[in-house]
Amino acid sequence: MANITTKLASGLRYLRDNRWLAAISLLTYVTAIFWFTDLDLDTANRFYDAHHPENGWHHGEQPFWRFFYHAAPIIILLVLIGSLSIIIMALVWQRIRRLRIYAIFILLTFVLGPGLLVNTVFKDHWGRPRPDAIQQFGGHEPYFPPLRYYADGDGKSFPSGHSSVGFALLAFWLIWRKRNLWFNQLLLISTLSMGILIGLSRMAAGAHFLSDVLWSAVIPIMVMLVLYYPILNIPRIEQQRALRQQNPLSQPLGKTNKTQVVWQVGLGVTVIAISLFNIPVDKDLQRDFAALREISIHAEQLHLTLHFENREQADKKHTVRVQYRSRGFGLPWNQLQLDLHNEQGHLQFIEKHTGIYSELHNRLHLYLPDDFKGRLNIQLDKGTVKMLNKPANLIINAPSVIQHITQ
Length: 407
Description:
Helix content: 40-55%
Number of helices: 11
Largest sheet: 9 strands, mixed
Strand content: 15-25%
Shape: elongated
C-alpha cells in the first residue's frame, strides 16, 4: 500500500512539473473520444428536430440562444476598444501606464486566439462540415471527426469562432486570479459560463459540434498562457514592481516605446476592421399565396427545398407557403435584397446580395399541394434543389441547377 501511495505521489509531482505534457495528453485523450464514439452526433441530435423539416435546428432561434449568438461580436468590439483606449491613454497619463502591459496581453489574446488561429487559420480553411450540412441531419456532406482535414469541403465548423470569444475572456481571470479571492472565483465562473453558453447557442443552431466548442476553448487558452508566461512574462514584471515599489513603465516613452505603441494600436485597428466580418446576417420571411399557375425563382446563392404535401383542408388546398431564412457573417454595410411578389398568379422570388461576406447560407422552403399543376422556373447561380414527394406531372425548368437536384 505504501508503495502504491509513493508511486501515486511521484506521478502527481511529475504532472505538476510537466503541466504542458499533462495538458496535451488530456487533450489527446478527450479528442480521441470523439473519434471512436458518436458523442458529437449524439449531442448534436439533442438539439435537432427531425419533425420540423423547414428548420430542424429551430431551437437555436429561441431568444435565449439568439442573445448569446449576438453577444460575441459585441464582446470583441468592447474588449478591443477598451484595450486600445488604455494603450493610447498610457501615452499621456502616468497612472494608466502600469495597466498597459495588461491591455497588450488582452489585445493579443483576442487577436491571435479568436482572430488569427480560430477564425482565419482553422475555421476558414479546415473544411469540416457543420451539423446542419451533414447527411445525418438532412444535409449532403459526410461527418468528419475533429482535427480531420477535409480538403474538398468548404465547411466552417471547426472550431467555433463565437464561443472562442467567450473563452478568451479567461484572460481577465488570469490577470486578477491572485487578487480578491471572491472576485476571482466569480470572474472564473462568469467567463467559463459565457464561453459554454455561447457554444451551446451555436450547437442549438446546428452550426457547431461539441468538439468544436471544446477546441474553441483550448486554442485561446493556449494562446493566453504562451503570451502571459514566456512571451510577455507578466509575472516577472509584477515581481519587479513589487520589489522596486515603482512602475517600470513610468519612464518617459522613448522612440522604441512609441514605435511599439504605434504597431499595437495599428494591430488593434486592423483586428477591429476584420471583426466587422463577424457582423451576423439574420433575415427571415414567410408568406402564403393562393391560386398560383407559375413560380419563378432567381437567386445568386440558395438552398431550395420543395415540399409537396397531401392536403385535406379546403382552405389550404391550393395555398403555397414561402419560408426564407438567411444566416451568415459579413460587413455591416452589406445588402441582402429580396423581391417577392405575385403578378396575376405568377409568383416571382428574386434574391441578390452585395458586399463581402465571410459566410452566407440562404435557404428557401416552398410548401406546395401535391396536385400542383403549375410550372416552376428555377435559376440559381450557386446552390442546391431538394424535392420531397415530387408529383409526376410537375414541369421544372432548371437548367442551371439540374445537376444539383435530389429527390
